[in-house]
Amino acid sequence: MMEQEKMKQDGMQRDGVKQGRMKLVIGHLYPDLLNLYGDRGNIQCFRKRLEWRGMEAEVIPFLSGDKIDFSKLDIVLLGGGSDREQELVCGFLKDIREDFKTYVEDGGVVLAVCGGYQLLGKYYRTDKKTIEGLGILDITTEWEPERLIRNIVLNSPLFEQPVVGFENHGGRTYIGDHTPFGKVFYGLGNTGKSGYEGVVYKNVIATYLHGPLLPKNPQVCDYLLERALKRKYGESVTLEPLADELEHKANSYIVDRYSDKKYILKETIKRYT
After folding, report:
1. What pTM value is reported for the model?
2. Residue 243 in contact with residue 8, Cβ under 8 Å?
3. Is the separation of the CB atoms in 39 and 77 below 8 Å?
4. Distance between CA atoms of 153 and 164, rounded to whole angstroms?
5. Whole domain around residue 64: which residue ranges?
6. The domain spanning residue 258 has which CATH number?
7. How far apart are CA 227 and CA 189, in angstroms?
């Protein structure tokens, strides 16, 4: 780990002259309520992959009821939460709906995970009530009693390397005409039946993948960072690669595991016995 850190630091020194003056402001929305399965790890991944390149990251946590100025943000993270926590957040969403929508339509970068993904849509109908969403995406979510819990592997047209993570959700999300984040290679995805997972809209990635998502998939992190940098500093900005050998090995291990039919059979038997 220390050797990998040194390799990344060497990359930072190499690229710092060109990119060192750049800075991204990252808004973490409602971490007091929406931080299921370690979504803060995504924030840390954003921060470190900027710092390793000699760039600056400012993270602003917005707690319940805080005023949010989206014009000052370059990236927004909306994490996951239980149905109860989503219901609590619902009241605050009404106050930011128009500003958040304007930010998205103007190309603002957003990562929305699980409950955050559901809240970007029109509504999430649970077994007890309907939680009104932001209406930024033309999607709806319907609760079902059997939760979709699985490790998951996606093939996304955005990346050469598969995207891996963990899903645990009771909602089935119907994305209509939106573009999915990826096609499910192993796992359950949006509805357990559609064969697809998540949504990509403008510079928004909305997904059920926990893990946290970004440390397991540095290619996704860099995609979002580069989008934010281009929006702020111009289309000529490109990110120099980092020494991600360990991350790639971990990713490949998961992909290889769920390419093994014998392993999948054993896991399936274990799940139902």
Report:
1. 0.91
2. yes
3. yes
4. 5
5. 2-271
6. 3.40.50.880
7. 25
Closest CA to 153 of 144, 145, 163, 143: 163
Dump the DSSP string for 168-229.
Answer: EEEEEEE-TTSBPSEEEEES-TTTSSSSEE-EEETTEEEE--BS-HHHH-HHHHHHHHHHHH
Alpha carbon distance 208, 187 (integer Å): 11
pLDDT tens digits, one per residue of 198-216: 999 999 999 999 989 999 9
- Concerning whether 114 is annotated as a catalytic residue, the answer is yes
Question: What's the CA angle centered on 33, arms 28 and 36, to 5 degrees?
Answer: 85
Between the alpha carbon of residue 168 and those of residues 120, 152, 187, the distances in Å are 18, 10, 11
| Residues sharing a CB contact under 8 Å with residue 224, sequence separation 6 or more, in sequence order | 46, 75, 109, 111, 203, 205
Q: Is the dihedral of CA 76, 79, 84, 85 positive or negative?
A: negative
The rounded distance, in Å, linking the Cα atoms of 110 and 189 is 20
Q: What is the pLDDT of residues 74-93, one digit of tens each?
A: 999 999 877 777 777 888 88
Neighbouring-strand partners of residue 200: 179, 205
Return the structure tokens found at 202.
């403008």
Tokens 């796992």 identify what position?
187
The SS3 assignment for 58 reads strand
28, 169, 178, 210: which one is catalytic?
Answer: 210
Q: Tokens 């799940």 correspond to what residue?
A: 271
Whole-angstrom distance, CA of residue 150 vs CA of residue 146: 12
Q: How many domains does the chain have?
A: 1
Active-site annotation holds for 248: no
Ranges of residues in the chain with a pLDDT under 50 are 1-2, 11-17
pLDDT tens digits, 27-54? 999 998 888 777 889 999 999 999 999 9
* Catalytic choice (28, 45, 90, 114): 114
